[in-house]
Amino acid sequence: MASSTGTPRSLPQRPLHVAVLGSTGAVGQELLALLAERRFPVGRLTLLASPRSAGQTVTWNGQTLTVEPVSAEAFNGVDVVLASAGGSVSKQWAPVAAAAGAVVIDNSSAFRMDPSVPLVVPEVNPQAAFQHTGVIANPNCTTILMTLALAPLAARRPLRRVVVSTYQSASGAGARAMEELRQLSRTVLEGGTPESEVLPYSLAFNLFLHNSPLQDNSYCEEELKMLHETRKIMGLPELRVSATCVRVPVLRAHSEAINIEFTEPFPVEEARELLAAAPGVELIEDFAANRFPMPTDVTGRDPVAVGRIRQDLSEPNALELWLCGDQIRKGAALNAIQIAELLLDSGASAGVPA
Fold first, then answer.
1. Active-site annotation holds for 245
2. Looking at 141, 220, 245, 324, which residue is catalytic?
């Protein structure tokens, strides 16, 4: 990827000019909410989208802002771009924004596996963010959630293999898919036949294997993202990972069942203590009541909820666990803003001038 020269490693310590690219989508709307909620130092906010969405108005922090069509001129004077408009848009405009002097934090898959672009989960590999040359990639939602649980365990005992099954909500396919699930669920309840237009099959009272393109090895693109991105984030290029990704009729928040094999036995209580203390993780576990994380526990919330941590009966060196996390929030928008906050904190400690 072409990069800008002289791009600052940190963000300046002053009110920033922030641009949100893809501001009208589900993740874009969450980015706007989090910028206000977390009091990110926004001096000026520019909302960018495709020409189709340009002209819409959005209320943010008491201001009414008009969505502008993305263009090269729109990035003039911008400090940070939070991009969530899809891979083709990011490939076109991220280099333009970086060349204009902005730091681009991109939520698409466009640059995740580019060796020159950091792929960052702030609780897992924060140091990688400072290696950017203008663009930082936000990982896939399922990868973010999984690495939050893997990292504290891998820091104690080496990982050998990870097998994961995901239960991915409609939110992973965007706002239109969420609305379609609502509408088609009503159709089924009223005795009608659901006909999907956004997703390949109806999710109403149904589930299906993830609809990303199948590859020659019979894994889908989503499953291979979990393999390659986990290796890159955790710095384990030989880690064995196998994923099965499933789309389920949940509006928002993904779930994952993970089997983690180590090079030696890992006492369950030790793993539980590590996860309970891990940043970004919340332990929800009541074996007596058979109560463990559910999507409703994390919807609209920051933590990834982990529970049902147990010994794998088939392998003495393996543990099983279950987790749930809000795909739009920690799986996308929150992670992006936390990356920007990392660069702010670095600037404060290093005394980066305004």
1. no
2. 141
